[in-house]
Write a structure and sequence with these properties.
Two copies of one chain form a homodimer. By secondary structure, chain A is of the alpha+beta class. Chain A contains nine helices and 19 strands. In chain A, a hairpin with a 5-residue loop joins strand 6 and strand 7. In chain A, helix 3 packs parallel to helix 9.
Chain lengths: 382, 382
């Protein structure tokens, strides 16, 4: 074999082995240090790789803003499987590989607790948007892990508590509190790690666009002693008891809070949206600010009778509740339609409420980051 | 086919499909809610399962206290692979599956950041030992995520800060500080999630066996701006600069600390042990309490010349340093031998030091939990 043929063959092998990905693509910000893949292209297409050399079939699966349906990956000559997605929706998406029927995380990405387990996540940047960025030159609040004994569940629980910048230094100041609930399959870290709630608040506060507040994120799961771990219905009475009888008193005694109902808000997404409406509308003496993000579709919402008729006397409701906020992403289809229907029915019944529509986003974290931005900016203003 | 044969066949199928595991075994405490496997037997054998039905070969790999070498798993008639290990060493072990050459986490277990990625972990209980348990009826300190801008690295960093029970309520009290460093491939969460440092402190404090203190856990990785992410040498000058010029001043200005050197300790494990000795022995005006856990084996330690001769004047060293603590697990072989050699050389040179030997444990977290228990109990006493 002469040198020319040898070089040509080598070139051919190298060219064939090179995975196909968009020019000018960059490693995702959620990659582990040093990982070159996944890569995000200028068009927001994503190229992923999976090293399951012996597999017969590898698919990319995950959030709707990344892959609408499982995407077949292709085995390159070097044995590594890869695929490039169509342009993704900006924001955070869970994803994983389906390797011969087995769900496998991408060991090149950070993992985030979702789908009831640690799951690979990818961040797709949104052009010109930085409200949830961790900005170096903005004052940062703390997020505190707060353990407490729950007599309701018979076990130790852990909440995460955001205290705004200056909380420790301004030793006399007292703060209103927002209780923020996660969705099904997530946990008390999700609003921080995926949602970046602390950075959203830091940035709002630095811009003077929100009132300083404490934000409390607990697990939305609770069951009475003896209850199975599988008893995962988010709307359990146990969670309501934990919130009302334990968590709120704990927060009010541990942190420098304002304890009047006018200084207490609750909001949640998906399962947490259902929990928020179920709990706040039953306890208007405790909460004055209510946020329902991407709530599960509900059949036949009726302003006169739903939620034990709390909306029936619209004037009384309007006088008592400072904010009733509903939101959903336009790509959430049934959830969006159902939220619009509730909003319109409330309007028609004379119940003051705000509806926010997140353009182009699905039942994913970009909807809820935007929702928090919109909701938190309105809170605790007279 | 008559009913008897049918039943017999059914019995045979069910019996054959049932995975083999120890009687009276229980799900590991590190399992995700509802997961029946991995199971820990009364003899501390561990049975794991992996659903890679299409795989040709599946092995169990992980920490030395769980599997000394890759352990072949067996495919059961139902297509699920399983294996039962020999009795494991008590404590925390990383583990994963090797599926046809691909490293895969166990989706039934919690993941912990180790080996430079999120990795499955299993907790093996130690009979009669509860010093690192999350006890419901003991007061719990908080663990605070503390973001800060580093001019040294040019980026935002996140430390975790343990404040002891009562920190917020006793608004005039000031506390000594322990800086605690992790090992290679881990991060600023590892001392909390794997090491349970906060629970160890909570339990020590509740028993009156330690002085109330603040514990700071940062990432041990740092590089100067423009430095590659791959520049992972833990003993970098960048980390030393972050610690001395940024983190300590930040902690002293943000928390109610005692700022004299007699109220400042540093300890670390493995890579962090090397960093601790490198930093503290160079900065004895900053640190008075030193803990080196499972340090990397070093060639030819010489009390007269090593560490720039800091041990040469033993009397001066002894007068200045409140505690020089060395420790290792007996199963750490070379690390243990190397630590003993350093201890004996220091003794011979008249340098006061303490050596702790953790019985039966390897280069794993049970060694370091015990080390923290022993070290923290001695701190900040006159």
């Amino acid at each position: 074999m002469n040198a020319w043929i040898c070089c040509s063959l080598l070139f051919f092998v190298l060219a064939a082995a090179r995975p196909v990905f968009a020019a000018n693509s960059v490693p995702a910000s959620t990659n582990l240090p040093g990982a070159e893949f996944p890569r995000v292209g200028p068009d927001l297409s994503v190229t992923v790789r999976c090293k399951a050399r012996e597999a017969k079939s590898v698919k990319l699966e995950g959030g709707a803003g990344l892959v609408k349906a499982p995407l077949d990956m292709v085995k390159n000559p070097d044995g590594i499987w890869s695929v490039t997605t169509p342009p993704a929706v900006p924001g955070f998406h869970y994803y994983w590989f389906n390797v011969d029927g087995v769900r496998m995380n991408d060991d090149a990405s950070r993992l985030f607790f979702g789908w009831s387990r640690d799951t690979s996540g990818i961040e797709i940047p949104e052009a010109g948007v930085d409200f949830y960025d961790a900005k170096p030159n903005v004052p940062h609040g703390q997020v505190r892990m707060q353990w407490y004994l729950s007599k309701v569940t018979g076990g130790l629980r852990r909440a995460h508590v955001y205290t705004p910048p200056g909380y420790d230094a301004e030793a006399q100041a007292r703060y209103p509190v927002l209780y923020l609930l996660h969705g099904a399959g997530e946990n008390e870290r999700s609003w921080i790690e995926q949602g970046r709630a602390n950075f959203i608040l830091d940035n709002l506060l630095a811009a003077g666009k929100a009132k300083p507040m404490i934000v409390v994120v607990d697990s939305g799961y609770a069951s009475f002693p003896g209850g199975s771990n599988k008893d995962r219905n988010g709307a359990t009475a146990a969670f309501e008891d934990v919130m009302l009888k334990e968590l709120i008193p704990l927060v009010d005694s541990t942190y420098r809070t304002k304890t009047a109902r006018e200084s207490r808000a609750m909001a949640g997404l998906s399962m947490g949206s259902g929990q928020t409406l179920a709990i706040t509308l039953k306890h208007l003496d405790t909460f004055a600010w209510i946020g329902a993000m991407s709530g599960p579709p509900r059949q036949g919402f009726d302003a006169a009778t739903s939620y034990d008729g709390v909306f029936k006397d619209a004037a009384a409701f309007n006088a008592k509740v400072k904010l009733l906020w509903l939101g959903a992403g336009t790509a959430e289809d049934r959830i969006h339609a159902s939220t619009v229907a509730m909003h319109e029915a409330l309007d028609k019944a004379g119940v003051t409420n705000v509806f926010y529509s997140s353009p182009g986003t699905d039942h994913e974290w970009q909807t809820w980051r935007r929702s928090l931005l919109e909701f938190a900016g309105r809170l605790f203003r007279e």
